[in-house]
């Protein structure tokens, strides 16, 4: 036992003696270098030694342990300045051996035809005179490919090439194989029972490829657009009562046989709800909830509408803020009754967290001035944070159409009750140059060249200049709009115009108009606007000599023909002589109507008028509406100076409603009245109507008409009227057998209306056109029968890439004796 214990004790002593140098070695390993100055650097050419040493951070004792050395090594590698970094220890000193990256001398792009060099250079991270980083080059190649994919070119291939040059410099070349555009060949919807796939294709932005796709771009596959379409579909269903809707997925698949993408939207509609009740609750003692009731756009019995609910919340919250409750929060709650398919809506008003806007930071506006953006906010720095006002400002900024993207986010401020509002923007081009042309049965061939700028000088101003030249119409105009007059939400506009309308198949005379019109626009609500205007213009008539070559139409030489007696005078000869006679020589070659010749003799006439327009618009789409109401009421008072005085009133209302199977019903009602304010009304100031009131009639084809020697030698000019009304019922339906993207739909309609009440000149002593005992019909003879004109017809509507086109064929059912029929009408134009 004693011997064993001695052996174990000796062995333990030996191990302890061996452990001492090992421990000393371990304890000394963390300090392989005393200080940063003990670091030696080799291989560096451009980067200074002290810069490299600065990446090694010593500890509190000024020593570098192994962890700090590793951190320095990682930091050097992450700079991207070096191809290789090695650290070795020699004699207690640290040696950092470097291989620096090359410097990029030139960056070039080859093979790119669809995307310019400037755009690609702005997107990549590698820059001339910068350091070459191979991972960055690969990232740039991927970014270039992504740009092409967003434009629909999924066959793109980008190959970076590094060409060595002297003095450690390289040229970087990206070789691009662009490939062809990859379109969307088929769009399908699964789970849509309430709405057809044809209708839902109207909702989304992505379109299927067709023969005319080269004129647009929405048929090109873009994953971001498809994702945005999911939200558009969801919002469409929420607007139409489907509170539980889910767009579960947007599946995309490339079909190599069709060489395009198949896009499938999977929808779970749920059931459609109506509003059972609308209640208000407030936890703020001094704020009665009923004061907000009038701002609700949700009514009992109507379909549940999430969009109307959002606008109601916004307006209520703004009204609460206006009443002094800056932190009030309005939240809607919907209680569903699944059996009755109803929702009971409760608006609750609570005191929200007290938070203030410390600062509004605007980023990305390289061209647009800061104040143009800030004036879209109804709050400023230091105000209480109000989410509804922030959302409204974001919507206004998007509606400016100055930016590709608008995003508003908040960041914490200097204290818990402060936030910084960040406005992230991406500018886009706001200038337009267009050459447009068209043809219509009214104006003939027409061409226009225009240039416009929506954000002139980056100040949010609108400016446009255009020149028109056509077969029967010519002119030029200048327009300017300041949307914020004196920093108020009032738009000041100015139009300067010159118009020349030439004689054509429908009027025997031409008119020339030169003037200007300043105007003020007020947005009363999002769906209601008011415009005040003043107009001053000079108008004159031009007439061929053959239509104005008579000085005296009366006298003994007047002998009406039997045909004229029977058709115009009802068989009565005012002179008592029923024998055939010769017309005066001035009428043998035709003569324009008395009001036209009198206006020509009077020379240029000045019109000075004040007017206003009230516009109510709830259309779902201004270009191709399917639902909503549009009402436009106008009044103009002429007589503020000038040569004429009158009060002209007109109203135009259109109501669109979806019916069944994608058929849209349209009700159109219009009416107008012209009242004299002392002076005699001119023919030019009266309403002229034709297919714009009842289709199936020629321009200026209905209403009062000059019958003096018409239709034999007289012109039969339309005189216009002081009163009109018109109603129209129309059904617009798609051609289900055609692809939606073709943009064709048909229409059937019935029109009714009338124009009457001519109050212009009927006699002229200078030419002897005055009734007398010897010539009781020497004054102008005209027809002013108040008869209801009606017609039925069919139409073809094409939302074409060339612009909206419409073809109509209508058959009059009832008409006036002297109305002029024109059953076919065509109108349209294009921009390129």
* Proper CATH architecture of the largest domain: Beta Barrel
The level 1 CATH classification of the largest domain is: Mainly Beta
CATH superfamily of the largest domain: membrane protein fhac: a member of the omp85/tpsb transporter family
List segments where confidence is low: pLDDT < 50 over at least 5 consecutive residues. Answer: 1-33, 554-561, 571-585
Report the end-to-end length measured between terminal Cα atoms. Answer: 111 Å
What does the overall shape look like? elongated
CATH topological fold name of the largest domain: Porin
Strand content: 35-45%
SS content category: alpha+beta
Strand adjacency order, main sheet: 16-17-18-19-20-21-22-23-24-25-26-28-29-31-32-33
Give the count of structural domains: 7
Based on CA atoms alone, the radius of gyration comes out at: 40 Å
Q: What kind of sheet is the major sheet? A: 16 strands, antiparallel, barrel
Q: Give the count of helical stretches.
A: 13
Total strands: the figure is 33
Helix percentage range: 10-25%
The average pLDDT score comes to 83
Structure description:
There is one protein chain. The chain is built from 13 helices and 33 strands. It has seven domains: 32-100, membrane protein fhac (Ubiquitin-like (UB roll), Roll), CATH 3.10.20.310; 103-177, membrane protein fhac (Ubiquitin-like (UB roll)), CATH 3.10.20.310; 183-268, Ubiquitin-like (UB roll), CATH 3.10.20.310; 274-351, Ubiquitin-like (UB roll), CATH 3.10.20.310; 356-427, Ubiquitin-like (UB roll), CATH 3.10.20; 430-502; 503-544 and 556-831, Beta Barrel (Porin), CATH 2.40.160. The protein is elongated and about 135 Å long. A hairpin with a 2-residue loop joins strand 18 and strand 19. By secondary structure, it is an alpha+beta fold. Helices cover 18% and strands 39% of the residues.
């Amino acid at each position: 036992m004693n011997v064993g214990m001695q052996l174990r004790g000796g062995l333990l002593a030996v191990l302890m003696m061996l452990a001492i140098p090992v421990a000393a070695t371990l304890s000394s390993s963390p300090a392989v270098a005393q200080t940063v100055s003990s670091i030696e650097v080799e291989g560096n050419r451009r980067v200074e030694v002290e810069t490299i040493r600065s990446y090694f951070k010593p500890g509190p004792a000024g020593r570098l342990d192994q962890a700090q050395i590793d951190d320095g090594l990682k930091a050097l590698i992450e700079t991207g300045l070096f191809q290789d970094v090695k650290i070795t220890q020699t004699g207690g000193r640290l040696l950092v051996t470097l291989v620096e990256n090359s410097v990029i001398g030139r960056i070039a792009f080859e093979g790119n035809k669809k995307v310019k060099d400037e755009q690609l250079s702005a997107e990549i991270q590698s820059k001339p005179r910068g350091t070459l980083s191979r991972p960055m080059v690969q990232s740039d190649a991927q970014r270039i490919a992504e740009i092409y994919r967003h434009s629909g070119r999924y066959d793109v291939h980008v190959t970076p090439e590094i060409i060595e040059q002297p003095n450690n410099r390289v040229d970087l070349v990206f070789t691009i194989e662009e490939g062809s555009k990859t379109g969307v060949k088929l769009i399908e919807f699964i789970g849509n029972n309430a709405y057809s796939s044809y209708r839902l294709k109207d909702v989304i932005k992505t379109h299927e490829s067709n023969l005319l796709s080269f004129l647009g771009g929405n048929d090109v596959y873009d994953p971001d657009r498809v994702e945005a379409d999911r939200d558009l579909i969801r919002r469409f269903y929420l607007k139409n009562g489907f509170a539980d809707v889910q767009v579960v997925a947007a599946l995309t698949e490339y079909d190599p046989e069709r060489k395009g993408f198949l896009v499938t939207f999977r929808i779970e509609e749920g059931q459609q709800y109506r509003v059972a009740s609308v209640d208000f609750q407030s936890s703020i003692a001094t704020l009665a909830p009923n004061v907000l009731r009038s701002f609700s756009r949700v009514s009992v019995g109507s379909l549940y509408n999430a969009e109307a609910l959002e606008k109601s919340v916004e307006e209520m919250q703004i009204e609460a803020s206006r009443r002094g409750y800056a932190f009030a929060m309005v939240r809607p709650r919907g209680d569903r009754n699944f059996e009755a398919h109803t929702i009971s809506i409760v608006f609750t008003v609570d005191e929200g967290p007290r938070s203030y806007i410390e600062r509004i930071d605007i980023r990305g506006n390289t061209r647009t001035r800061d104040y143009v953006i800030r004036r879209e906010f109804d709050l400023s720095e230091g105000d209480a944070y109000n989410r509804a006002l922030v959302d409204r400002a974001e919507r206004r900024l998007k509606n400016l159409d100055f930016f590709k993207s608008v995003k508003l986010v908040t960041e914490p401020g200097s204290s818990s009750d402060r936030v910084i509002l960040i406005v992230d923007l991406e500018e886009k081009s706001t200038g337009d140059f267009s050459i447009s042309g068209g043809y219509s049965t009214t104006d003939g061939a027409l061409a226009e060249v225009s240039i416009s700028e929506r954000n002139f000088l980056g100040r949010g101003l609108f400016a446009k200049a255009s020149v028109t030249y056509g077969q029967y119409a010519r002119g030029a105009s200048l327009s300017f709009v300041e949307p914020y007059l004196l920093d108020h939400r009032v738009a000041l506009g100015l139009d300067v115009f010159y118009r020349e309308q030439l004689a054509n198949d429908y009027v025997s005379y031409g008119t020339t108009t030169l003037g200007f019109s300043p105007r003020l626009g007020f947005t009363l609500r999002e769906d209601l606007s008011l415009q005040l205007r003043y107009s001053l213009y000079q108008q004159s008539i031009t007439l061929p000599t053959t239509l104005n070559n008579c000085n005296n139409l009366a006298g003994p030489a007047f002998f009406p023909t039997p045909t004229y007696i029977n058709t115009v005078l009802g068989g009565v000869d005012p002179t008592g002589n029923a024998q055939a006679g010769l017309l005066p020589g001035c009428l043998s070659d035709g003569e324009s109507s008395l009001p036209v010749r009198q206006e020509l003799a009077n020379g240029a006439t000045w019109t000075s008028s004040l007017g206003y327009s009230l516009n109510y618009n709830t259309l779902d789409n201004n270009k191709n509406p399917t639902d909503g109401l549009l009402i436009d009421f106008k009044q103009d008072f002429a007589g503020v100076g000038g040569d004429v005085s009158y009060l002209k009133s007109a109203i135009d209302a259109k109501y669109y409603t979806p019916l069944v199977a994608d058929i849209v019903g349209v009700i159109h009602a219009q009416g107008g009245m012209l009242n004299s304010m002392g002076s005699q009304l001119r023919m030019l100031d009266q309403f002229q109507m034709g297919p714009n009131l009842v289709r199936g009639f020629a321009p200026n084809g209905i209403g009062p008409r000059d019958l003096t020697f018409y239709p034999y030698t007289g012109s039969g000019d339309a005189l216009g009227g002081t009163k009109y009304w018109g109603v129209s019922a129309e059904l617009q339906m798609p051609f289900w057998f055609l692809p939606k993207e073709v943009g064709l739909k048909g229409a059937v309609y019935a029109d009714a209306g009338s124009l009457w009440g001519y109050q212009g000149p009927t006699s002229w002593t200078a030419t002897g056109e005055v009734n007398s005992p010897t010539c009781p019909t020497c004054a102008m003879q005209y027809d002013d029968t108040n008869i209801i004109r009606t017609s039925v017809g069919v139409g073809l509507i094409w939302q074409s890439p060339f612009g909206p086109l419409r073809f109509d064929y209508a058959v009059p059912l009832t008409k006036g004796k002297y109305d002029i029929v024109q059953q076919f009408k065509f109108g349209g134009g294009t921009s390129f």
